[in-house]
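User: What would this chain look like folded?
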Amino acid sequence: MKKKLLSVVLATAMVATLLVGCGGKTEEAAAPAETKTEETKSEEAPAEKEETAAADTTTGGGKIGVAMPTKDLQRWNQDGSNMEAQLIEAGYEVDLQYASNDIPTQVSQIENMINSGCQLLVIASIDGDSLGTVLEQAKEKNIPVIAYDRLIMNSDAVTYYATFDNYMVGTKQGEYIKEQLDLDNAAGPFNIELVTGDPGDNNARFFFGGAMDVLQPYIDAGKLVVKSGQTDFETVATANWATETAQSRMDAIISANYADGTKLDAVLCSNDSTALGVTNSLEANYTGEWPIITGQDCDKANVKNMIAGKQSMSIFKDTRTLASKVVEMVDAIMKGGEAPVNDTETYDNGTGVIPSYLCEPVFADVNNYKELLIDSGYYTEADLQ
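Assistant: Here's the prediction, encoded as structure tokens.
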């Protein structure tokens, strides 16, 4: 692996030395939405650009492209800003762009990054299967690619993967429901409904799979009952993780199964945007005792709901921790070494197992949110008022 990565770096330096002007031969793509880049700099002479690009790789500097899916979810704003700040502090130039959850926009943005001299790409994909063609361009130019949080599928251009342990996210959500309902001791049965994320996001399958590995035995035994009958991934998936979509589906479930006063004991929600939709629906349509509701990301609105007793828990994934690890990986690659990984077995993207670094998630609830979120400096008290 080290030899392969060293050859990547050397090849990049040779290309930078031999070609005149990094972006001179490329076509201009449509202006991307939600773009955050530095102000246009005065152009250097081509020879100066080439010397700088060649020097950057050996000194630890260089230009890094960071592609985020959207600004619509709070967590991606935090991921992007944290990574940008830490990469800049480490001495890199950063091209950070958000794609408004539009696949063609993200493809265009990545193509622009490749053609404007980025020497490494960090990509949180909108759809894990949508980037194969554009990443072929990165592979042809020997540009390493780190898939960020969402695994990029069916592309052998992916060098590494950095994420939280997605299966563990699901198991923690399932375990929380198990413990709160005391499923091993209580008589039951308990009613539960299931809401997961976007079917094009490979992570959603890990979240849902981890949770269901905990909960399925109790469903099979009849202690947990899904009154809607909706249990398979495709049925319970939520396109784009959209709050409105989760809310609309929950409206229909309540109307058909719980409008007569039947108690809903728990709702497994794979993240906070879907949990928010479920909460909104319950507030409008449900008159029974409030159920256990899980979530993920500790978005401000959801933490406020936890404090108010409307959401039970949320998985906390400190984006500062993941950003720090990605910066370590970037730095190692750019200096010709191997990126640190702790998993070489789990994440197969269809072309082989991608060496990965998995950060450990924790859960926050009303009992520990101050320690995790406020004392750590992630939020201030004012953020949650």
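The domain at 166-317+379-384 is CATH 3.40.50.2300 (Rossmann fold). If you want, I can go into more detail on any region.
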